[in-house]
Structure formats: structure tokens, C-alpha cells
Amino acid sequence: MLKYLIPSIILIIWLLLAILGPWLPLEPNYIILPNILQPPSLSEWLGYDDLGRPILDRLIMGASTSFFVAFWVIFVSVTLGTLIGTISGWLGGYIDLIIVRIMDVFLAFPGILLAIALSGILGPGIENVVFALSIVGWVGFARLARAQTLSLKRREHVLAAIALGARTGRILRYHVIPLLLAPLIIEATFGIAGIVIAEAGLSFLGLGVQPPAASWGSMIRDGTRYMLVAPHMVLAPGLALLLVVLSVNILGDKLRDHLDVKSHER
Q1: Are the C-beta atoms of 98 and 184 separated by less than 8 Å?
Q2: Is 1.20.1250.20 the CATH number for 48-265?
Q3: Every domain of the chain and the residues it spans
Q4: How do residues 15-71 score in pLDDT, each as one tens digit?
Q5: CB neighbour list of residue 14: distance below 8 Å, 6 or more residues apart
């Protein structure tokens, strides 16, 4: 249990900091020139950056940024992908063929490169990051929902509902989509880790959150110029990013094993 307790605590802390961060008495943009590049101390646990701003305060605000992006991208991607994939798998025919070809076009491009291109076209900003990552992220959920729908629509309870004259919307709402939730939730947990990294990568490239707003990716970018004299500028956000992504992946593996019926049968 200890293996999963520590990741759970890390994610709870991330969640609490993300929610409560804007309400805490923080000063992430307050510049103190005498404290430029000061290392961690008892008064400031994570030290100061190249402008004399407290890294701990900016780290907490960066947690809010990463959580905001991850939440909305997952919400939009799961909703849109499930809707498109379910309709595609249920209707079949030319509609399914067209949707599959659209998904193939999106999959032909590496996801992060497509997100970079979209962010470059739309311009920097957290809303554009959410939009760009959502455009990239819905495809995986749509493919999963389509594959599951193709299997579920041949199940006995679905065929019985069709024979009884149930409407398509009711069948999908009560007999198909509820059975899609388990694999979609597992996919979403792993998607969170990818989105957190993608948001940090876009901010690192200057296509994400813009100064003076804090992001773990932009903090790492600013710290790379002072690696030799102030390594804490990179270590603090880098370690936070590592712990969150690793925790999400570990708990995602646990959730997958828990929801896997075959593993329980063994």
C-alpha cells in the first residue's frame, strides 16, 4: 500500500495547491532585487529566481496552471472523443469511414508537433494551449470509444433493447456509454500525465502561459540560463513535474489493474 500511498499524497497536494493557490497570500510576481538568484534558505525554502521572485510562490501558481490545463483538456477531449467515437461505431457505413479517415489524418502528425503548430498559429496564452491540446487529444478517446462501441452493439442486452423498440439515444445513454466509462477513465488518467508534460513543453518554448504568469515549463526555461550558479531554479519545477507525472502514471496502472476483470479472474 505504501507504493500507492505516496503518489496519492502527492496528487492530493497538487490538487489542493492548484485549487487553493489563487486564494493563498502569495506574491509570485513580487521582485526583490537584493534576493536575485539567492539559494534556498530557512526564510525561503526554494530560493529566488533571476528577478528576485520567490520560487515557492511561483511553483504553487504553476501547479494551478498545470491543473487548469489538464482538467479542461481532459474534459473536452473525453467529451468530444466519446461522442464522436460512439456515433461513428454505432452508425457505421460512410459516416464511420469519414470519421475514421479524419482520425487517421490527425494521427499522421505527432501530437506534440501538431500542438506546437496550432499554438504558434493561435498565439500564446493558456486558452489557446487548452484548445490546441484538446484538438490533439480527442482522437485517442474517439478511437477507444469507437472500438468499444463496435463490440458492445452486438451484445445481447443491446440487441434486446433494439428488438424492444428502444430509441437510439436511450440505448446509447443507458446500455452503451456506461460500459465505455472504465476504459475511458483509464485512458484519461494516463492522458493527464501527457497533458501536464505537453503544457510544460509549450510553456518552455514560449507558446504557453506568458509572463508574468507562472508555469513549470517557463520556470525551467528561465532557469536553464543559470544552471551553474542557481540550479535550484530548474530543480524545483523539474522535480515537481517529475513527481506529478510519475504519481499519475503509478495510480493509473493501479486503476487499470483494479478495473481489469481478467486480472481478477486469475
Answers
A1: no
A2: no
A3: 48-265
A4: 999 998 888 888 888 888 899 999 998 888 999 999 999 999 999 999 999 999 999
A5: 63, 67, 244, 247
Closest to 66 (Cα-Cα) out of 220, 222, 223, 227: 220
Q: Are 54 and 44 in contact, with CB atoms under 8 Å apart?
A: yes
Distance (Å, whole) CA 200 – CA 241: 8
**Has this prediction a pTM greater than 0.85?**
yes
Q: What is the pLDDT of residues 102-147, one digit of tens each?
A: 999 888 878 888 888 888 888 888 888 999 999 989 999 999 999 9
Cβ–Cβ contacts within 10 Å for residue 176, how many?
A: 22
